[in-house]
Amino acid sequence: MKYSRVSQILAEASLPATVGEWVQGWIDGRESLVSLVVSWRGMVELCVPDDGDVLNACGGKSLRAFREARKIFGGGASGKFPVRSSINVINPLPASKGLATSTMDIAGTFAVCAAHAGAKLSDERLFSLCASIEPSDGIMFNGLALVDHIKGELIERLPGPPPMTLVAVIPRRTLDTDVYRRDVSALEALRKCSRAHERAYDILKQGLAAGDAALVASAATLSAEIQQEVMPKEEWGVLMKARELTGALGIAAAHSGTASGLLYAPANESSAERAEKWLADALRAEKTGVAIRRTSVRGGGVF
After folding, report:
1. Digit-coded pLDDT (tens) for 209-219
2. How many Å apart are CA 199 and CA 6, to the nearest integer?
3. CATH code 3.30.1340.30 for 8-296
4. Exposure pattern of 87-113 as b/e (b: 16+ CB <10 Å)?
5. Model's pTM, two decimal places?
């Protein structure tokens, strides 16, 4: 996306992206997830554009969030938002892949409006506001969090992940959250896997508490395997082979998106680099439009 800087910026917020989830499924009787947050970021600016300024186009969900935010927060020091105020969404990532682009844009919109209004906005309140627009990722929580992404409720705060490198596979095809949620048979099949989801979450918690990257990655792999049984990804066989050849700790997946990836310990950066090249060849990335990108995992938070 082209970066369109405008002349008068009232507030700005930046949030991290995801490559799917560490775990997603039915846990303790409710649908929930722990977002796999990575270092890629997007930004939203609240601005008053001058004549000649060109704003980046923003989606309908961000515009709805902007309308709601102005109603909720009421305005800045003058008591209201300037008449010509707008939002400028600066998000370089592709949508409908499982990278949390919608949540980044929506959360950023609410955050800048609250900041301009001088309103205190907790991460729990921000998450709830985002979920009022659409099912959302927990990228605004410091560290990690198990969240009910449908109801917009925090279930449990978790520590951030130990250092790891992720080699992401981002295919050309898309899967919008709304489309995913209309697949009632798939959602019901996943509900029947609740014991396996709970086992994956228990492993994740143990790994996070111990700072054990291998254990954390194994939780991600288990959750991805459960999802693969119900909603197969075309790249799965290639990912399995790449994991075997390069010694990856595990496989990550976007459960309601198309992206996936391999997880590596920081000391194994050379293997991550080798996987990046091998995957590009195996998936014929240049011809098929698959993007292979390296990043690092991290905790969430709004800046």
Report:
1. 999 999 999 99
2. 49
3. no
4. bbbbbebbebbbbbbbbbbbbbbbbbb
5. 0.93
